[in-house]
TrEMBL record, chain A:
Keywords: ATP-binding, Nucleotide-binding, Transport
Domain ABC transporter: 4-253
GO MF annotations in UniProt: ATP binding; ATP hydrolysis activity
Gene3D superfamilies registered for this protein in UniProt: P-loop containing nucleotide triphosphate hydrolases
InterPro entries given in the database record: AAA+_ATPase, ABC_transp_ATP-bind, ABC_transporter-like_ATP-bd, ABC_transporter-like_CS, Oligopep_ABC_C, P-loop_NTPase
Record's keyword annotation contains Repeat: no
One Pfam family of this chain: ABC_tran
Family recorded in the similarity comment: Belongs to the ABC transporter superfamily.
Protein's name according to its UniProt entry: Peptide/nickel transport system ATP-binding protein
From TrEMBL, chain B:
Occurrences of domain ABC transporter (ranges): 6-255
Pfam family, one: ABC_tran
GO biological process: peptide transport
NCBIfam families listed in its UniProt record: oligo_HPY
Name of the featured protein: Peptide/nickel transport system ATP-binding protein
Gene3D superfamilies membership: P-loop containing nucleotide triphosphate hydrolases (3.40.50.300)
Protein keywords: ATP-binding, Cell membrane, Membrane, Nucleotide-binding, Transport
Membrane topology: Peripheral membrane protein
Source superkingdom: Bacteria
Subcellular location: Cell membrane
SMART domains assigned: AAA
The organism of origin for this protein: Amphibacillus marinus
Length: 313, 337
């Protein structure tokens, strides 16, 4: 049994209108997504804004209501109502995107990091301070930081406070939603290194949500590409980057800026080719409603949403 | 050289914090030529945006020294009325955030039309509208006639950024400053916008200053690159040289901290410490010194200067000659673990 298993997940947001303000339609933000994550691995979820990757992450942790489908975490279905009890969910934590807005400016670091502890564990005041100091040390901040406020820290330090809060309850799964997008490259490197270190140390599993393919490639063991609420391709990191199958994946891979200026012309040519193919064949990759097809196996580890017959290539 | 468009000499822009002035741009000299993309790279706080705003004359209360020569006019200390005649016409800027740079209460036609009208008050409404539609076509917005009457909130992020570019190029500027033009956009849209800027460079023979922290974007777009740290230029070179033979420790560290797409490294390089705040900048000696403490003190210059170590390749301070990356064990993440 997989550590985390998502089965046919749907998250729809109602659109209300008409005279009686009834639900007239819905935005299908996540429209039939299934994947599995192994323990101790990093699963990268990639897509552009509006693709539903963040909604998927938030639905797993329960921040968005699930319309239908299953989120099976260690054998428990988190979507089922009877499982909305607390102790399953303490094992799943989240790191948010923006370290400037995800920490309450009026709270001290102590209160921010101790909040999950206060929810789940009855600690005395001195035990609590000790635990928080330990956590801060683990993320490389000095224990004196306890009584400071978020504005006294730099972006990278704030993100590490966010990480300290996420690991306070020794979770098993961390959903990291664009954890480094708001940071400078050098600080990014620091946070990414650190995330890998604690992953080894605490045997954490990450669901790493990002639009930056370079970073996802660096971090992930397995990657799922989302487009308009559905998966268009899924595979091991190697599969996705060396053998992209779906036109949308190809387009994403082609759009990554190449760090070597010598490749500029080659890259430009490659991008033009993909763009031509994209314009020519876009329709063939989607059904009449504009949805991606169901994933089909290409190899043992690699799945893509290719049309049933008349496969390109 | 004949095609020199912009010549900045010893520019120093200082901001007042409490009762003192602190230089955010400190003694910067550089040139921009026609039909050239000069990229300015650095972390937040390195002064790259402050430099761009200085050129555009957008700092209201900053103290500016030195000279910015744009086609024979020194922009430093120029009367606001005169700057207004140049700004938006001969030089213009693409702002970073397409969500906030547009006025939510004006239609697209009004926003683009405004900048055309301000520099050509005699234009008729019909000509103005035709020009707006032409610009929208030029930046690749489909159904230009229809988009004209729309408001910013009706457009996607990529479309809004195109509108901002349309405003910037409305009067065919000779100098275009793009401040993180694609940071807020998705990669596929980023690729389109960069293509667009590249086309415009060729069509209009314009000089472009591209400000970014994304080294991938630099590698794709730039002809020359200036690396800024703590208000100073620490290295400036042709793009190939900079990526193949980076010399300054800061440049080398930056390049090393990007996940390399070709090989799977376990650990990324981390630059120790943080960019110091404006008030705490070390003004004496090498400013990067505190972030490479394993390099001997004696290798730094007392008053670091830019040295031309190869034609058109300038590096500040002599510490680059002795710089090396510490072993994994030595750096061990600056106290992170």
């Amino acid at each position: 049994m997989a550590f985390l298993e998502i089965n046919d997940l749907h998250v729809h947001f109602p659109i209300k209108g008409g005279i009686l303000n009834r639900t007239i339609d819905s935005v299908k933000a996540v429209n039939g997504v299934s994947f599995q994550v192994e323990q101790g691995k990093t699963y990268g979820l990639v897509g552009e804004s509006g693709s539903g990757k963040t909604t998927t992450g938030r639905a797993i942790i329960g921040l968005n209501e699930i319309t239908s489908g299953q989120v099976i975490f260690e054998g428990n279905d988190l979507a089922a109502t009877e499982n909305k009890k607390l102790d399953v969910k303490r094992d799943v934590q989240m790191i948010f995107q923006d370290p400037y807005s995800s920490l309450n400016p009026k709270k001290r670091v102590l209160d921010i990091v101790a909040e999950p502890l206060r929810n789940y564990e009855k600690l005395s005041r001195s035990q609590e301070v000790e635990r928080v100091a330990d956590l801060l040390e683990k993320v490389g901040l000095s224990p004196e930081s306890i009584f400071k406020y978020p504005h006294e820290f730099s972006g990278g330090q704030r993100q590490r406070i966010g990480i300290a809060r996420a690991i306070a309850l020794k979770p098993k799964l961390i959903i990291a939603d664009e954890p480094v997008s708001a940071l400078d490259v050098s600080v990014q490197a620091q946070v990414l290194n650190f995330m890998r270190e604690i992953q080894k140390e605490l045997n954490l599993t990450y669901l790493f949500i990002s639009h930056d393919l370079g970073i996802v490639k660096h971090m992930s063991d397995r990657i799922g590409i989302m487009y308009k609420g559905r998966f268009v391709e899924e595979g091991d990191t190697e599969d996705i980057f060396s053998n992209p199958q779906h036109i949308y994946t190809k387009r994403l891979v082609a759009a990554i800026p190449d760090i070597n200026p010598k490749n500029r012309d080659a890259q430009k040519k490659f991008r033009e080719e993909v763009q031509l193919e994209y314009q020519k064949d876009y329709g063939r990759y989607f059904d009449e409603k504009g949805l991606a097809f169901n994933l089909r196996n290409i190899s043992q580890t690699h799945l893509a949403a290719l049309p049933e017959i008349g496969v390109v290539e | 050289m004949n095609d020199k468009l912009l010549e900045i000499r010893n520019l120093k822009t200082s901001f007042r914090i409490r009762d003192d002035y602190y230089a955010a741009v400190d003694d910067v000299s550089l040139n921009v030529n026609k039909n050239e993309v000069l990229a300015i790279v650095g972390e937040s706080g390195s002064g790259k945006s402050a430099l761009a705003f200085s050129i555009m004359g957008l700092h209201n209360r900053a103290k500016m020294e030195g000279s910015i020569n744009f086609k024979g006019t020194n922009l430093v200390g120029l009367a606001p009325g005169k700057i207004n005649k140049i700004r938006g016409k001969e030089m213009s800027m693409i702002f970073q955030d397409p969500l906030t740079a547009l006025n939510p209460l004006m239609t697209i036609e009004e926003q683009i039309g405004e900048v055309i009208y301000l520099h050509n008050k005699a234009i008729s409404n019909r000509d103005k509208k035709a020009k707006v539609i032409e610009l929208l076509d030029q930046v690749g917005i489909p159904h230009a006639k229809y988009v004209c009457d729309q408001y910013p909130h009706e457009l996607s992020g990529g479309m809004r950024q195109r509108v901002i570019i349309a405003i910037a190029i409305a009067n065919s500027p000779e100098l275009l400053i793009a401040d993180e033009p694609t940071t807020a956009l998705d990669v596929t849209i980023q690729a389109q916008i960069l293509d667009l800027i590249r086309d415009l460079k060729q069509k209009m023979d314009a000089g472009i200053i591209l400000i970014t922290h994304d080294l991938g974007v630099v590698a794709e777009m730039a002809d020359r690159v200036a690396v800024m740290y703590a208000g100073e230029i620490v290295e400036i070179a042709e793009v190939n040289t900079l990526f193949e033979q980076p010399r300054h420790p800061y440049t080398r560290s930056l390049l090393n901290s990007v996940p390399n797409s070709d090989e799977k490294q376990d650990k990324l390089h981390v630059i120790q410490g943080i960019v110091p705040a404006l008030q705490n900048l070390p003004r004496e000696g090498c400013r990067f010194k505190t972030r490479i403490p394993w390099i001997a003190e004696s290798t730094h210059e007392d008053h670091p200067e830019l040295h031309e170590i190869a034609p058109n390749h300038f590096v500040r301070c002599s510490c680059y000659e002795h710089f090396y990356f510490p072993d994994e064990t030595e750096v061990e993440n600056s106290g992170l673990s």
